[in-house]
Every structure is written in structure tokens, then in C-alpha cells.
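Response to reviewer comment R2.3. The reviewers asked that we include at least one raw input/output pair. We reproduce the pair for MFS transporter here without editing.
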Amino acid sequence: MTDPVLAPWRGRLVVLAGVVLVGLNLRIAVAAVSPILDLVREDVALSSAQTGLLGTIPVVSFAIFGSLAPPIGRKVGLEPTMIGALLLSAVGELARAAAHTAPAFLAWSVIALAGMGMGNVLLPPLVKRYFPDRIGPVTASYSVALSISTAVPPLLAHPLAEAHGWRVAIGVWAFVGVAAAVPWVVVVARSMTARAHLRELLRRAPRAGQSELTTAPAPGVARLVWRSPTAWALAITFAMNSLGTYVLFAWLPQVLSDAGLGDEVGGRWLALFAILGLPASLLAPVATARMRNPFPLVVGFVTLWAAGYVGLLVAPAHGTALWCVLLGIGNGTFPVLLALIGLRSATPAVAVALSGMVQGVGYAIAGLGPVGIGLLYDATGSWDVPIVVLLVLLGVLVGAGWRACRPGLVGEPVAYP
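Raw output as returned:
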């Protein structure tokens, strides 16, 4: 028989497929709409206020429904909760594609994003549960998938809409959520023999001793997480990173349009910004897992991010490609944080609570970013002050990141007897 240590992926390939497919599903509902928003507005009569609300729904949904994932996961199990979240997102995507009124479109968008918000929170603890010895590579795999789910739908939105209409262009992506649920159904249905093999694999795998396959959601775990300085540092770092990212998604085309480059050009640069998350997503989690303290990675990414902001501030219409490249690579702090949620959790039970807390608080704060930056722009009539504010917030990210990256675990191992 092959030694599990020499075949570290044996028994876990189905889970790995599930993790990657979930990553492919996590941003589709956001990315597929914005490129063809004019077609949607014309057909379902979205007002300007409703269009603005549509831009805030993703972050708010991620915060609210992501916070609900840990208690549901503790009650019914992580895997069944993930299946429910994926099917919920698929139903929401199909239903909003069939909506004929603005309120219905917005309501079903909330449902689609609710499932994805829960998936955001559930993935890190599932990686911790099944891949405690491979957190870096597995986080990299789903971070790359997440970047693809952000970059590909905008590229296909117009061709699909022109060929089949905007409803097909939006609704077709529901198949990803359904496909992502299949491996998790297999995992839930797996025989007791296979699950026993998986426990043995994790027991013998390097570093697996710090985490068990089945970890009890002991009373007080959530309270312990909310009182942890490391958890709060992670939450603030995540908030500042997500705030900057969603501000750029909301306003980068407008910044470049106001600089004289035109709306269509601004959209292409935004796509470049999204695509450049791929290399960082591939490399950053692996590097994070190999470093005792990955703070130098955070500093390096933030330096690039800050240089991109300075470029937009000083010469947005000149060197635009360089500024977008710097901003896109600078956003590599995000996969670092995803890896840290697993690496700083003592057990999968702690990882569930930590993921819910970090992403719930983080997205709640990040939701203020696009609105706040828009208000600053309206008040000043210029992008100078908003960009300076974003630079200051990068300083907050670095400060919180220093604390979040320090070695140490949140929580103590608590396993079923």
C-alpha cells in the first residue's frame, strides 16, 4: 500500500476539485453584471439610485451572510452548508436573469450574493480541515480560481449578450455553482471507510498534528476569536484591503474617464487590474505558508499598491498601464490574508469562527469605501483628496498587517474524543 505521506493528495482530490470550483463561483455574480449594466437598466428600468444600490449589495451581502455561515456550519456541518450556499447562489443567478422589474432584480441579486458570501467564509475552514498540511498550495489554487471568476465574466459578457441577450449572459453562470456543489455532495456521501482513510492520511501528514478532521465547535470558541488581538488585526487588514479593491472596481473607470481617457478605455484598464490578481494569487499563499512571519510580503504588495495610487494622483492619463499593473499586483495582500486565516487558526472550529469574524467585519467596513470615496469626490470635485485618503488607509493596512502576521495561533485544539 502507498504511504499516505508519499501520496499527500490521495483521498482528497474530490475535495480539492470542490475547493477550486467554489473559488470559480465566488465572484461571478458580481463580475457578470457591470459590463452590460446599461442593457439591464434599460430592460428592467433600474433607476440611478437602484443602480448605485446594486454596487453596494455585494459587499453588504458578503458581510451579513458571511457572518451567518459559522453558526449554520456548526449546526449542520461545513460541507452541507457549502452545498446549500452554492445552490442558493445558483437559484439567485437564474431568478434574477428572469426578473422583469428592478425590485425583483435587486432582491434576487441579494440571494445570489448571499450564497457567495457564505462560500467566502466557509472555504478557509474547509481548507484547514482537509488540507492542514497543504494550506499554502490549496489556498493558492482557489485564489487563482477566484481571480478567474473576477476576470473572465466581464470579457464574455458583451459577446454573450449580443448573441443571446443579457439574460443568458447573466444566468448562464449558474451552472458553475451547480457544478461546484457536486464534489461536496460526493464528500458528504462518502463511506465511513473512505472517511477513516482520510483521517489516517491527515494524522500522518506533516504538520497535521495541529489540526483534526473533526473538531468540536466547543462553547466559547467564537468568544475567544472576538477577543483575540490577532483576529482583530486580520479583520482590519482584510477591511482595508477589500475597501481599496472595491473602491477601484467602483471608481477606477471614472477616474480615468475624468482624466480624458474615455469610458470604454477605463473599462479595459479595470479588466487589466482584475486579471493581474492571478500571479499574486498563485504565488502569495504558498510563500505565506513557508514564512514564519509573512509581513515582508504585505509590505512589498502595499508598496506597489501605493505606487499605483501615486501614479493615478500625479499622472492618471500617462503611464496608465503601469499604474494599473502596480495596483493589480499590489492587491496580492488578499490571498496572503486568505492563507493566514487557516495558518493562524489552531483548529478547523477556530478557523470557522475566525473566517466569519474577519470577513464579516472586513466586508462591513469595506462597504463604506465606494460610498465614502464617491462623497469625497462630490464634495471636492477632484480625485486628489479621495486618492490621498486611500493612501492613508494603506498605512492602516500595514499597521494592522504587522500584528496579523506575527507568529502564533488563535485558539487551542479542541477535538472530539
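The chain has a mean pLDDT of 83. The two ends are 28 Å apart (CA to CA). Further pairs are available on request from the corresponding author.
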